[in-house]
Amino acid sequence: MPSTDVRPGLxxxxxxxxxxxxxxxxxxxxxxxxxxxxxxxxxxxxPTRRLVMIAARNAVEPIVTYLAALEGGHPVLMVSGGQDETxxxxxxxxxxxxxxxxxxxxxxxxxxxxxxxxGTRHELHRELAMLASTSGSTGSPKLVRLSAENxxxxxxxxxxxxxxxxxxxxxxxxxxxxxxxxxxxxSHLLAGGSLxxxxxxxxxxxxxxxxxxxxxxxxxxxxxxxxxLEAGGFADRDLPHLRYLTQAxxxxxxxxxxxxxxxxxxxxFELFVMYGQTEATARMAYLPxxxxxxxxxxxxRPIPGGAFRLDPLDGGDPVAEGDSGELVYQGPNVMLGYAxxxxxxxxxxxxxxxxxxxxxxxxxxxxxxxxxxLNRFVKIFGxxxxxxxxxxxxxxxxxxxxxxxxxERLLVFATSDRAxxxxxxxxxxxxxxxxxxxAAHVVAEFPRTANGKPDNAALVRxxxxxxxxxxxxxxxxxxDGAVTPxxxxxxxxxxxxxxxxxxxxxxxxxxxxxLSYVExxxxxxxxxxxxxxxxxxxxxxxxxxxxxxxxxxxxxxxPAARAxxxxxxxxxTPAVLRALAxxxxxxxxxxxxxxxxxxxxxxxxxxxxxxxxxxxxxxGVTRVRRLIRGMSQLAVPAVLWxxxxxxxxxxxxxxxxxxxxxxxxGDGRWNEQWQFWFxxxxxxxxxxxxxxxxxxxxxxxxRRMPFAFPLALLGAALAxxxxxxxxxxxxVERYAAASVxxxxxxxxxxxxxxxxxxRVLVSALTAVTVFGFFGDPARExxxxxxxxxxxxxxxxxxxxxxxxAVGTLAGSSLFVxxxxxxxxxxxxxxxxxxxxxxxxxxxxxxxxxxxRASSAGAAALRRVRTLRRTGRRVAAPTxxxxxxxxxxxxxxxxxxxxxxxPA
Length: 903
What we know:
Blueprint: E1 20-24, E2 27-30, H1 31-45, E3 52-56, H2 60-71, E4 76-80, H3 85-98, E5 102-107, E6 110-115, E7 128-133, E8 143-147, H4 148-161, E9 169-171, H5 179-190, E10 194-196, H6 205-214, E11 218-221, H7 223-231, E12 244-247, H8 254-267, E13 270-275, E14 285-287, E15 301-302, E16 307-311, E17 324-330, E18 337-339, E19 354-362, E20 368-373, E21 377-380, E22 383-386, H9 387-396, E23 402-406, E24 409-414, H10 417-431, E25 438-442, H11 456-467, H12 485-495, H13 517-528, H14 540-545, H15 547-556, H16 559-566, E26 568-572, H17 573-589, H18 598-613, H19 620-649, H20 654-657, H21 677-693, H22 696-704, H23 708-725, H24 737-752, H25 756-770, H26 777-792, E27 795-799, H27 803-811, H28 813-823, H29 832-870
Parallel strand pairs: 1-10, 3-4, 3-5, 4-7, 9-10, 9-11, 11-12, 12-13, 24-25
Antiparallel strand pairs: 1-2, 5-6, 7-8, 8-18, 13-14, 14-15, 16-17, 17-19, 19-20, 21-22, 23-24, 26-27
Helix pairs in contact: 1-2, 4-5, 12-13, 17-18, 17-27, 17-28, 18-21, 18-24, 18-26, 19-21, 19-28, 21-24, 23-24, 24-25, 25-26, 28-29
């Protein structure tokens, strides 16, 4: 019968009634106000102890409900409040399995308590205060049972070693349902401190605005948080109130620990590296900040009230000084035990100490250091996976497989293609590890050591040998219309030549650039419909979600509307402009018509794409590498072609073939050496940006002022133009790299114009700067008109039948530009239309040939590197390693790879 007699209430509110407890949306909620809200919520939850599920967010209502449940003695089950498919599916699974009595969540009318039943059907042990999901769970959901003493003791221990005071204010940089994030809330409220409630990332400038405005003294982070901090110029931020940072959730590289500790010493804050597990209510150890630089890599010492010991492996001799053993923790924060079914809620304490599954050693200085994993646990994306248990679960489903872990990936092995594929799918479902972090491999037999034991090291070596094997992916064409994160991921993997791509990776994050976005955008548009302007930064998972609204619209739309929509393709404006510009360039040069301005327009389009794809939130060194890669994609085919023509005909000088004609003194008149001015302007413009952003201080400045920085740079580029040309450019002044660099920067500024007021400003700047440059209104109208389209229209609807032509023209534009100088001249007087058509035909053939040669060369290089690394023969790819993409609508296919183009 359900137990309701004992009410082990817990209050964490220790601050002065007039002191701020929570800061939300710019408003402070005092402890007195928060206490009133909590008491009202206690009354709403009722006197009967019930299991309360809370859909958590870093907001006032979820925290009020959490505190009220604790104070009223209601066991809490904290889950993610996200509205994404994964969060919704996970919540539904927990509801079905553990049957909460009350579900607290956001509804259409705001926060609400949904009573599943008036009382409870569960027998709840008198000590049970909270149920937490554990990252160590492999398979069906398993919860950690925590008591009020667990929560209070751990919060008090954290408050003690962090020396928390009422003046401390932490920003909620971690999710509330994550035990680490919840420990920040518990410890600060218990110490009388306050919390700045935010769900913004540390990469969001608005987070830092709020942090400065409200004087945060600390925030918590996992290793990835610290990567974002370094990439975002954290070292230069002015946070005078910041007292300390905490880090947990995985091992932070010791070099990074030393860097942040040294930075803290200069800036006046401390770094606390911590170690814990959900089973210990969050924290078990911390590294004193004064030891962070000298002892980086250690987990430190037990928290107050806790203790470690090292147990020998396999019941052997006691662990000698400096040797490794299994790390065992004891303390008042050790969980009551696990709950795998609702019947377990009635259990009392079944665990008295925590066997962590980690191998550790005690250093001579008394600090503890993790040296490995016991029982083949691996930690991937913060999830602690028991590989032996995973193999057992697979075997229970009739799948004979082996598991291993390497480089933040889960590896599964089977002896057939079909079994490997099935093992991968089930491993993702059983562990919760993202599918892109699981690699399936086929082996002839499972390797064993000389004494007959499974040879896990050999499995990892096999995976390394097979990792670089090429995967064949079918082209996207029309099928049943089903779009999944995996199919979008497969498309990105193919077109960007990134077989390591995962469903949580984005086009920009995978190194996509202006040279590859044309085909990718066309293929995605065929799969998903009209793309949002920010599609390059959305993950494959996020892009796949766009297909659902489209499918719903297709289901509800009238047949005529669906037919109309199926006949249109929303092609990205930069792609349309590239295709249009190369037509204008070739047609004008061949004397088919006279519409100048296409090449200058392409410079602005190039700047726009550089900003979108090279100047992302990636670390500074990555941005510079992307710029250099873009330069090479431009320069290599150009130098090869121009050099070959120069050798065969003597038509071009070596300075032209090397793309340095700008540096050669001349008479100021046009000649054939200026034919490739556009490529030189692009190349040296990108080189200048790489040098500029290679300076860390400038890189940080640009990140802080993403619109103001290119605006100021545009002013400098225009000043250089006016100095060189005056108001009107004459002759080759119109083509000199220094005179046209402002167009690249203007395109960059367009990409950063993310509000209506900014777009209006950029439109005005376009009109002021373009008109008058050539002294030719028609030419200026083409350039300005194209830029204005770029400002205001992210995509242009075109007939579906034109989509492949646009993609081909845009993708091949570099090679058309390179080769057309040698194609059209014989037909210029007699048949300019023929010269124009032949120019495109030759350029497209050259593009496809170069693309195939580049792809084959890259594959050969990867294979050579693999052979050198392993000294073994690389196995051929198997069906389990092969990703297949369903075909897209007919007629939308560009080439299988994207070669460089002028933009």
